Amino acid sequence: MSTRTDFDTDVLVVGSGPAGASAALFLATYGIRVRLITKYGALADTPRAHITNQRTMEALRDTGLEERLTREATPWEFMSNTTFCTSLAGEELGRIPSWGTDARRHADYVLQSPCSMLDAPQTITEPILVQEAQKRGARIRFDSEYLTHEQDNDGVTTQVRDRLTGQEYTVRSRYLIGADGARSKVATTLGLPYEGPGPVSGALNIIIEADLTRFVEYRPSVLYWMVQPGAEKEGVGLGVLRMVKPWHEWMLMWGYDPADGPPELTEDFVRKLAVQLVGTDDFEMRIKSSSPWTVNHHYATAIAKGRVFCAGDAIHRHPPTNGLGSNTSVQDSYNLCWKLAQVIRGTARPSLLDSYDAERAPIARQIVERANQSIADTGRIVAALDLSDTTDPSVLDEHLAARKEPGPKGEKIRRALREAIAYKSYEFNAHGVEHNQRYVSGAVVPDGSGPEEFARDPELYAQPTTRPGAKLPHTWVTRGGRKVSTLDLGGRGEFSVFTGIGGESWLKAAATLSAERGLTLSPVPIGPGEEYEDPYGTWAELSEITDGGVLLVRPDLYVAYRHAAAPASPEEAHRLLSAALEAVLGL
């Protein structure tokens, strides 16, 4: 391949799933030339990922898409009653309020973010992301298959095949993003290192249309888990009925042993499985699609080399437990794309891009481990029934019946079952896993504070902080008397400078540095008589700086630098803020 310095696009994105589509959206929003290619002829035709958490909604809010997705998705209140039962029409073993809908947890979620959680299958999210990216200038090409790439000191040359004509051609770009899924060709060509056992079990996803309203309208949820003979052996730990659209489109999930291969998914097989999970044959159904897939435990320990970066399932491969897949994918892109934009504009050195690997590779490992642990935790429910497995239906029935008996044995099973289901909060209410992601890299300037101490379980509970490397805390302040989230005061692809009364020198320094360096440092003064006021007093509690201190906030709404006190002089403000910017941007 030739080494061309004329570029067809600044960034080539391979893949149109959550990572690729959001990367195209973010880059186009930031005014960067971006081209997205996908080997497929259309976007997702099956629901796949669906849980959309607050952090992802915050990223989409930053692009102006929160309201549109909210209109089209299943609302938060329908996500609540995760139910464990013998079948949809059978006996209930218990429920767990999920995704922050429990009254005891809901305040944690509302205090943490201006955004709600949603259930938005990929059949909803992908078209929204891709259409909006295209409106903002991204070029989208379907039926275009990535073959290989070569990179040099100036850019990347990618070989592509048009799957309609068979013609091969090259695309020259400054950078390449491989967001081409769990069988990523880009990651393979790049030679990324992976850890973890890899494929661990097999599962079936079968989409049906069936009106099951009468079984669920009084206990709305997105997930219903079935304790049935052999259900825990493979797949995601139990049989599952997942709501796709309330309450007439569903996904059936059941495991199989990869060594034996998937069963033949005939109409008879699918109908039998549906009747088994629903618990009656008194319903009509239409099969929309069926496919086997592999439950993985695999993550990349390095996620970039040179001018090529990988994101999404290409670097973290795991089961859908905890709903972390598409969320982490979007957040990978949110982390990467502002950095690419700064480098392409010339306001940062390429060394800034090293922070993508430093910040997101540890997250890839964390979420893969968490998702697989949640499958293992499901085994607590079978163990609570005093069973080692559920293979023998008569033994399973006997132990299910024992939970209704008086006396010590029945009481023991009931208590153990309550505890096992409650423990699933680590899957269905893991608020800290979503929000407590801390970054350590060259794009974060330490302020000398000691190791962070968590007041509550860091997987279950989000802990807001302005420590460098943490997400900017959300709270409500006002502008002209109208409420606005602190998260809305930054982002949009630019840096922002938060301060208060006594912090005028920081704002003057920011204005000077903006002019000197050709980048935007949005001023955010908060306090009485300032552009933004803190009538509830919550920003003063959360900011962890004095009124005259400063927070330098990155475009992805992470704190890059913190100085707790007012500067001694305007010169000191300029020197400190300039040094922080230089450290973050690699200048």
Characterization of this structure:
- The chain has 587 residues and is an alpha+beta fold.
- The chain is built from 17 helices and 24 strands.
- The strands form 5 sheets. Strands 1, 2, 7, 8, 9, 10, 16 and 17 form an 8-stranded mixed beta sheet that branches. Strands 5-4-12-13-14-11-15-18 form an 8-stranded mixed beta sheet, with helices on both faces.
- Helix 1 links the parallel strand 1 (9-14) and strand 2 (34-37).
- Helix 1 (18-29) packs parallel to helix 5 (122-135), helix 9 runs antiparallel to helix 10 (354-384) and helix 15 crosses helix 17.
- The longest helix is centred in the middle third of the chain and has 31 residues, at 354-384.
- The chain is globular.
- The mean pLDDT is 96.
How does the SSE layout of this entry go?
Elements lengths: L8 E6 L3 H12 L4 E4 L13 E2 L1 H9 L3 H7 L8 E5 L6 E6 L5 H10 L5 E2 L2 H14 L3 E3 L2 E8 L4 E7 L5 E11 L6 H6 L3 E16 L3 H4 L6 E4 L12 E7 L3 E8 L10 H12 L7 E15 L3 E2 L2 E3 L5 E2 L7 H21 L8 H31 L8 H10 L5 H16 L1 H4 L2 H5 L40 E4 L2 E4 L9 E5 L4 H14 L3 E5 L12 H5 L7 E4 L5 E5 L6 H16 L2
Parallel strand pairs: 1-2, 1-10, 2-7, 4-12, 10-17, 21-22
Antiparallel strand pairs: 3-6, 4-5, 8-9, 9-10, 11-14, 11-15, 12-13, 13-14, 15-18, 16-17, 19-20, 21-23, 23-24
Helix pairs in contact: 1-5, 1-9, 9-10, 10-12, 15-17
Short description:
This protein is of the alpha+beta class and 587 residues long.
Structural class: alpha+beta
Radius of gyration: 25 Å
- Roughly what is the average pLDDT, rounded to an integer? 96
Number of strands: 24
Query: How much helix is in the residues?
Result: 25-40%
User: Ends: how far apart?
Assistant: 32 Å
Main sheet summary:
8 strands, mixed
Overall spatial form: globular
How much of the sequence lies in strands comes to 15-25%
Q: How many helical elements?
A: 17
Low-confidence stretches: none
